[in-house]
Amino acid sequence: MDRCGRPGESSSEEDLELYLTKLCSDVTLYSPKEGFFNHYMEQIDAQVSQDFLDKFGQLKSDEDRLLKTWGVKPIHTLKVQSFYRQKSREVSECRREEGNKAFQEKKNGQALVLYSQAVVRAPHDEGKSLALALANRSAVLYHMDEYHLCLTDIDLAIQAGYPPNLMYKVLDRRGQCQLQLGQYNSALLAFTAAAHALATSGLDKKKLESWKKDLSIKIHSCQGKTDAGDPAPSKTTSAILFQGSSKVLPNASSALTLNTSKDEGRYLVARGPIPAGQVLIAERPYSAVLMDDKCGSHCIHCYHRLVAPVPCPWCSGVAFCSPRCRDLALATYHRWECKFLDLLKGSGVSLNCYLALRVITQHGLPYFKKLQHRLNQPAIMPSASCRQNPNDYLSFYHLVALEESRSPRDFFQRSLLATFLLKVLQRANFFGKWDDEAGPPDKALTEDEVLVGRLILRHLQLIQFNAHELSGMAFASGKINFKKTKSVFLGLAVYPTISYCNHSCFPAVTRYFEGDKMVIVSLRPLQAGDVVAENYGPIFTHHPRQERQRKLLSRYWFRCNCEACRGDWPVYNNMVNKRVIQCHTCKSPLPQPAHNQSHVTCKECGNSTNIVQADKTLHQANKLYVAACQHMDEGHREEAISSFTSFVDIVSGLVVPPFRELHLSMQALRLLIASRGTIHTPGIPAPDASSTKQ
Ligand SMILES: C[S@@+](CC[C@H](N)C(=O)[O-])C[C@H]1O[C@@H](n2cnc3c(N)ncnc32)[C@H](O)[C@@H]1O
Q: What are phi and psi of 369, to 5 degrees?
């Protein structure tokens, strides 16, 4: 090992594993390169003795760890104060002017961006800049045929105090939108209100007459017409669970159940046969956070891409896709986090830490005080007699945290982070009004603060192993090409039911996203008792066994013993084009048949398999493979999925893996299924789920 603990050439595999584990653990807490938290951590590290750490390692509860850390004087040198992107009337007005210029030049896309910046930066309690920015944006939205968004902006502009003398304009625009949407009764009301508003317009006589005439024609055109049904745009299509919902795991298919073992913990298995391509779990996150660099482009509440951002009334750092998302966020987590977002960002703490905090802020203090007596209940193990509620905090709280395997240093680092996040909550008045004058920063913690602090510490441990990436898909080139897709990382989330999926380097399932909902789909056929395994990153076709095992051990703290690891299966590039037929009874590999031999006897179970028939079926299946590849090349997603899943189902029943075409098909399925999710490439329409070959 060198002075920084990095293993040298002569280091043992064990040293390397220890080093990698520490590195992986650190990045689940903070960035080693950015922000002030790493310097702070180094300073504290230098001030605590080995003896302190040894004693720290003997502490038995998160509460003890939190209190011990709070007692370390130097931790209170860190100054926590609100730091966030503030509103600016000057910036807002400047962007609005630029937006006006772009709009006059018919550059609608550019105008929309500039007006949106004007909206997000405008103060809510001072002047008219917000109302004017919203009203101007509504005009460009109308020209872009975004009638629903235009109507929202008009409502928001009026709520923000749009000037009465200009009111006729937005009321007229509201009527125009409603006319386009076939809402004739509402349009009639809007045009009538616009006509009344002319009285306070201050327009000269000529303009007034012209407006009156125009509005009267519009009113007349709406009279006597019946409203068309409202074709409100729907954001999601819903995935349907295979064989309906499970009674014990409501977000999972009834074809799944939960098993447990000493070495593998809890894990999902199939209860009976499941073909490839079936939806097995569809789950909204228990909690989720958006990545920093997506805050300007995605709704922080529902993760949809923003077209016309609805602002936060207090900060300019985040935005929402709708007033509904805004109100839900403001009523819960954002009211506590809003004024500390830039502090958290500047600290360099990881997204895991935001998530640990979010679980607290989304519920608020009274919720935790009320449930604290339940925290000592044993871990939930859904069974016939005990149904899991994935929205219950305890389903989150009891996710695996591997506290028994943690080093004292790891516990101390996480405790330091918990105290930092606790200080943020204190300053955000989460525990009641914070008063700098009333006491020093190291003032003894109250009962409520201890409760929340120890929960944050627990979150920091369990999120390490249970957080999922929340992502969308984008086509890398400017057109639909399933082979050139890339995953767009949007944030981090916890899905309690999906967290019960253990890992395999030869995974049984893949995933896609509908907004923030994760949908898990079978990639290959499963039989009763088969593990419904996800892949945590290293897949056998791309990464050799040693690399996979190192990654999994250092990141997830287990030694993988999946079929691919046990059999040391080759990566794609080393896979020979050989197929081994399986026994039709026990699935064991059959010996190669002699020339002209039609039946082969299994050495394991003694049953005979018709090898000629198996060859014939494989030959037929190959046609499906060719058709699937063609569908994929032509951009027919659902047809390609259907052909690939049929191929995988047939081949999995005949050939022993690894088998090159099987794995190529599964890789293609992963891409195709992922692209069912949110498509983030601007200008490219999502491929239609019901597309048919033209
Ligand atoms: C998301 S959790 C999976 C559910 C977990 N087994 C439980 O009991 O809640 C991830 C953790 O499960 C364990 N795990 C996952 N896959 C495993 C496997 N194939 N073998 C052994 N342990 C595994 C590891 O401890 C890992 O950190």
A: -65, -40
- Residue whose CB lies within 8 A of the most ligand 1 atoms, among 21, 256, 264, for a mutation test: 264
Q: What is the chain's percent helix, strand, coil content, to nearest 5? A: 50, 10, 40
Strands (DSSP E) found in 434-530: 467-475, 485-494, 509-514, 517-522
Give the pocket of ligand 1 (CB within 6 Å): 263-267, 399-400, 402, 465-466, 499-500, 502-503, 556-558, 560
Per-residue pLDDT of 346-383, as tens digits, reads 999 999 999 999 999 999 999 999 999 999 888 777 77
* Residue whose CA is at the smallest distance from ligand 1 atom 10: 465
Structure tokens at 544: 């050799």
**Protein residue closest via CA to atom 26 of ligand 1:** 556
Beta carbons of 275 and 508 less than 8 angstroms apart: no
| The ligand 1 atom nearest the CA atom of 500 | 4
312, 301 Cβ separation under 8 angstroms: no
Q: Tell me which residue of 121, 125, 152 sits closest to 137, measured CA to CA.
A: 152
| Sign of the C-alpha dihedral computed for residues 612, 613, 614 and 618 taken in this order | positive
Which residue owns the Cα nearest ligand 1 atom 19?
503
pLDDT tens digits, 157-171 = 999 999 999 999 999
Q: What is the reported pLDDT for 693?
A: 32
| CA 476 from centroid of its chain's CA atoms | 20
CA of 555 to the centre of ligand 1 (A): 11
Give residue 410 CA to ligand 1 midpoint distance, Å: 19
Q: Is the pTM of this model over 0.80?
A: yes
Q: What is the DSSP string of 609-657?
A: EEHHHHHHHHHHHHHHHHHHHHHHHTT-HHHHHHHHHHHHHHHHTTEES
- Atom 27 of ligand 1: nearest residue by CA position: 556
**Residue 196, Cβ neighbours under 10 Å: how many?**
12
Is there a contact between 535 and 565 (Cβ–Cβ < 8 Å)? Answer: no
Residue 255 CA: distances (Å) to CA of 86, 258, 271, 279, 418:
51, 11, 5, 10, 40
Closest ligand 1 atom to Cα of 466: 1
